Amino acid sequence: MNTSMISKIWEVFVIAKPRLDKIWNVKAMLYRDVFGKVCKPFK
């Protein structure tokens, strides 16, 4: 793997990271919601 490829991947990662974070935050909220509903009876 050469450095130009690594820097290219890094560029893409840096650009994509905020979008991934946004998607991940939404997913995390959904999971927490579902998890809370599922776990409530067992508490």
Structure description:
The protein has a domain at 17-43. It is 86% helix and 0% strand. It has one helix and no strands. It has one helix at 3-39. The longest helix has 37 residues, at 3-39. It is rod-shaped, with a radius of gyration of 18 Å. The N and C termini lie far apart (50 Å). The mean pLDDT is 88.
Outline the fold blueprint:
Elements: H1 3-39
Largest pleated sheet: none
Uncertain residue segments: none
Shape label: rod-shaped
Q: What portion of residues is helical?
A: over 70%
Please tally the helical runs, counting DSSP H or I stretches of 4 or more residues.
1
Based on helices, strands and strand pairing, what is the structural class?
A: mainly alpha
> What's the order of the H and E elements?
H
Number of strands: 0
Radius of gyration of CA atoms, rounded to a whole number: 18 Å
- Quaternary state, please? single chain
Overall residue-averaged pLDDT value: 88
Which percent band covers the strand fraction? under 5%
Key terms:
43 residues
Q: Quick gist of this model?
A:
With 43 residues, this protein is mostly helical. It has one helix at residues 3-39.
